[in-house]
Amino acid sequence: MRKCKANIYKNREKTTVFGLFHCWGSEFEEFENGPGNYTVAIIEMSDGTIKTAGPSELQFLPDSFSMPGWGEEDD
Fold this sequence. Notes:
By secondary structure, the protein is an all-beta fold. Helix content is about 0%, strand content about 60%. It contains no helices and 5 strands.
C-alpha cells in the first residue's frame, strides 16, 4: 500500500486527509436518465475507516513521509 493524501468533500466542505491507498474502485450517482459511474481511490485512515476520493484529489507521498496521526516517529 502507498501513503497518500487526499481532499475529501462532505457537505461542500473540503478536508485534507492522510491515509494508505488500497486500490481504485467505482461509485455511481443515480440521475433521471440512469446511473453515472466514476472512478474513486479507496483510502484507509489511521483508525481503520475507509474513505473514497476522486483521482484528481489524490496525491501519492514518498515512503519517507511521516503521516500525521499514524504514530510514526519523525525523521
